[in-house]
Design brief:
It is a single chain. This protein has 117 residues and is an alpha+beta fold. It has one domain (15-115): Alpha-Beta Plaits. The protein is 32% helix and 28% strand. The longest helix has 17 residues, at 29-45. Mean pLDDT is 87; it is low at 1-8.
């Protein structure tokens, strides 16, 4: 993960911000927030950096959760999605945390941005 700061960009010259946007079923925001915060702690243990988790204050839809994290490349993001670099123990913990999360979500999407400058 690339820290959120004004530090120099990595050797490749850019950073990607991955944004996961989830619209929850009514009353299901808190359980999903708890899952995302636990997932963020696991990401840090795996050396992937911290994920920022946000909930809607105002917006197009109620019951929205947004998580963001930075990666140095699409290859790094793809490796994360495959669980590469995560120990088997952390992988099992991750699976347990995310168990049943589909029951909390109506729909979601992913946005990927290139950070300029």
């Amino acid at each position: 993960m690339y820290p959120r700061s004004n530090a120099a960009l990595p050797q490749g010259g850019f950073v990607l911000r991955i944004r996961e946007i989830m619209h929850c079923k009514p009353g299901k925001v808190r359980p999903l927030v708890d899952k995302f915060l636990k997932m963020s702690a696991l990401n840090e243990k795996a050396g992937w950096g911290k994920m920022q988790v946000m909930t809607d204050f105002a917006g197009d839809r109620y019951w929205t959760i947004v998580s963001e994290f930075d990666v140095e490349s699409m290859q790094q993001f793809e490796a994360m999605m495959k669980g590469e670099g995560m120990s088997p123990e952390l992988g099992k913990e991750f699976e347990k945390i995310m168990e049943g999360y589909h029951d909390l979500v109506e729909w979601g999407r992913r946005e990927i941005y290139k950070i300029e400058g």
